[in-house]
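hey so i finaly got around to running the thing on AraC family transcriptional regulator from Novosphingobium pituita. pasting the sequence first so u can double check i didnt mess up the copy paste, my clipboard has been acting weird all day
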Amino acid sequence: MDPLSEIIALLRPNAAISKPITARGCWSIRYRAHEAPGFTLILAGQAWVTFEGSAPLRLAQGDFLLMPATPAFSLGSEPGLVGPLLEPGSDAVRHGEPQGEPDFLALGGSFSFERANAPLRLALLPGQIFIPAAQGVTGRLGRMIDLLAEECRSSHPGKDLIVRRMLEVLLVEALRWAGGDHSTDPAGLLAGLRDPSLARALTAMHADIRADWTVARLAGIAGMSRSAFSAKFGSVVGCAPIEYLIDWRMAVARDALVRGGQSLDRIAEDIGYGSASAFSTAFRKRIGCPPGSFARACSGEPPIS
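ok and heres what it spat out for the 3d tokens, dont ask me to read them lol
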């Protein structure tokens, strides 16, 4: 698999909460900050979302907004309105006038990720992904949004399952979305994969995690000098090449430990360490505890949401 697919596979995203949000007239609500990755898809009408410390953002039909960690925010029919403070929930909600056809309809909720590798979420996602309908509606993403909106309005058997799966596909598509101006993207894997030379090096590391990679060898794959490659990788991806490799090895190891059924010798071999002892030493240094302690701490815990 390619690097993005491998990381998403470890995260095992799931649309934990998906609920319709309707409103009519003049309305506003507020939510506290929470760790869960939140999303909003506008199906009809418009609203204004205001994140703490930021200017109001207009959301219109077809717009998609994804946040890896949800800051405190308000949502309303107009900017500047102060509404009640609500707690996130899974039930459908109605705001504003209780009677009459709603003039605003959205699908909102949150994703959950595998707890052991939840830190990958913040490394992978930028602070916010906002895809206006004007930029996404003519491509694949727009067609997915149209299909999701159609399913949300239907009453077909299996609707809830289809909506959840389509949301998961929409998450992946949003991550790899290539539209818009990425010149101000934060450092991270997505930025690295958009750079052709760095993408070759990243793909090579993911294709053979066990290899004895060196900066010089990776620089050759990228078609750059060693110094130029190191500087560019650090600037675009946000860490040194070998640091990235170690982090990825530890992510694969954490996933194997959580799943269980593999010996430390096997895990060590799979991720490029010569022995279980060498792997355990590296794991303790990186994660802060021995592999066995990590596995026991994670056993039976639900995914973080």
